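Following up on my earlier message about nicotinamide-adenine-dinucleotide. Here are the inputs again, as you asked, copied directly from the submission form:
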Amino acid sequence: MADATDSGRVALVTGGARGIGRAIAQALVRQGHRVVVADRQPATWVSEAAAPDAQRLHAAVLDVTDRSAIRALRDQTLARWGPVAILVNNAAISPKQADGYSAGVLDISPSEWESVLQVNLTAALVLCQEFLPGMKALGWGRVVNMASLAGRTKSISAGASYMASKAGLIGLTRAIATEMGPFGITANCVAPGRVVTEMSMTAGVEANAKIAQQLPVRRLGQPEEVAEAVVYLSGPLAGFVNGAVIDINGGIYMP
Ligand SMILES: NC(=O)c1ccc[n+]([C@@H]2O[C@H](COP(=O)([O-])OP(=O)(O)OC[C@H]3O[C@@H](n4cnc5c(N)ncnc54)[C@H](O)[C@@H]3O)[C@@H](O)[C@H]2O)c1
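Thanks, got it. Here's what our run produced:
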């Protein structure tokens, strides 16, 4: 079970410049892990982090749809800190139309469909393909994929492309959990409901207040509440949790 390396693993968090990804990276670094924060925009908060966290953080500007950039980051991380043992696929997009709503099924453009599937689903596969061999060599690994309530049931506000990508991510996670379990690697999903971040705030204050009133807890979630589940799933005592989906939604969806 737990050993000396459990608080000193190397983790990679995609989409860690802000929102839930930032909270995950901060929580993992507090656990003593060394954390690479990969995002297409600069993670400015990393350069402002204080010691001792600052020494255990590295920010990389990376588009998760760029396989060669992923390979380069993998090799740089290996040279800097060693193999990545914890991979958190968190980066995602949820496009909205000019009116603030998601495109309906009849209106989804080929480019929206393609880009959402690329960022939210295909990139997670590619990242796994590039980092799982290192975990296999370690004989230990944790993959945590950021799904969504929208991939579990009908969505409050997300569109079909996002819903399909997140449902697909849950399926991908089950496949990884099945194939990689024998090598000491688990794969699980976290499925948040509405959490206060820049992504969810695009819906507007009023719409979010209405959603909050529909939830049994009568409030939206905070990024730190999602991050805590990732800390658990990536930790030593979660080794028997494999292929699971942890719902964090204030009780609006109870499967
Ligand atoms: N906020 C919510 O209510 C909510 C609910 C359910 C699920 N989620 C999921 O949680 C995760 C984080 O969401 P958030 O609310 O923090 O979103 P956010 O938009 O605030 O942050 C997402 C981050 O991902 C990065 N990103 C997007 N495309 C990228 C790419 N191609 N390459 C690299 N980085 C990229 C963005 O730059 C951004 O920093 C996502 O997977 C999202 O689908 C969020």
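One observation from looking it over: The chain has one domain: 4-248. Hope that helps, and feel free to reply on this thread.
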